[in-house]
Specification:
Mean pLDDT: 95
Low-confidence stretches: none
Largest sheet: 4 strands, antiparallel
Strand order of the largest sheet: 1-4-2-3
Shape: globular
Distance between the termini: 23 Å
Radius of gyration: 11 Å
Number of strands: 4
Number of helices: 3
Strand content: 25-35%
Length: 85
């Protein structure tokens, strides 16, 4: 299992466009990816669940990646958040 923590820098938080891009990235991997924020947990494959986390700027998110391609997923997700959020 790999874990990643990130503080959201985008002034709008996680809104629809980056959330949709994130879900598209996540769906490229076999690993199970979970996102946690604000006391809630979301399946990273679900746009609705990601949006229900209500992540705003300066919020911390925690991501758990577990599966056969977790190292590749970790590297891409880390890059995604740093580039987009």
């Amino acid at each position: 299992m790999r874990q990643y923590h990130y503080i959201i820098k985008d002034r709008m938080g996680i809104h629809t466009r980056p959330a949709g891009l994130f879900v598209n990235e996540v769906n490229k991997y076999e690993s199970k990816i979970i996102v946690m924020a604000n006391g809630k947990t979301a399946n990273a494959e679900s746009l609705t669940e990601i949006m229900d986390l209500d992540v705003e700027s300066a919020d911390r998110i925690d991501i758990e990646i577990n599966g056969p391609d977790e190292d590749a997923a970790y590297a891409r997700i880390k890059g995604f958040f740093e580039d987009n959020l």
